[in-house]
Amino acid sequence: PVQLGPQVIRLRPAPHSRSRILSYSLRIEPSAHFINWQQDPFSNYQARLVFPQKTSEFKVTVDLVTEMAVFNPFDFFLEPSAEHVPLSYSPELKEELNSYLEKLPRTPLFKKYLASLDRRRQRTIDFLVQINQRIYQDFNYLIRMEPGVQTPEETLQLKSGSCRDSAWLLVQLMRHMGLAARFVSGYLIQLTPDVKSLDGPSGTDVDFTDLHAWCEVYLPGAGWVGLDPTSGLLAGEGHIPLACTPQPSAAAPIEGLMD
User: Fold this and answer.
1) Which of 247, 140, 88 is nearest to 183 (CA)?
2) What is the pTM of this model?
3) Tens-place pLDDT, residues 112-132
């Protein structure tokens, strides 16, 4: 048995989830614990757990029912000032988005990759789709069990990474192009289609749910728009956000120490 320090769990859908959450429960083992629900500075739900006794197991079980109603991820309007890139935020809005505009230094490979992107004046949505798909095409997807997130330079060097690595790379690219972006940790739910596609891939053969990560960009008029560089698509009804933060470290699903 070991002594668990306080544990913070971020596995409850965020208030702004577009897919309707019908029910949610969180079960923790060992049963001898104290739980305190909080919201972090970015309004994400988090459960803080304290364990008074030593334990030989720590188990977290989430039971979630959500309404998987299809929605069009392009169904939004932009302010006239945001219809084309490069766009600039008003001084008041820029101040509110300040923590989502903080940039890492331009390292050699990052600088080169940033310079290779098409940054001419164009429709904002075309620009975002193009960059999202570019990352999807340029990097191999890996399942990494190691904790933490690669730096953008490491991802560019390896030309591969997990969903959280490509999401963090996209966040930094957006910020260096003047767009406010945040890191999103969440669930990805994919269901088998009821009808097979006639003119393209039908999608997954089995229903599955997994932890996932993507990027959200703030567009005046539309708000936060989700981009998933792992698939090259915009976030849809299967993307259930759990924690949206300026840095990946603040969105870890479970965080805590033990002796």
Assistant:
1) 247
2) 0.91
3) 999 999 989 999 999 999 999
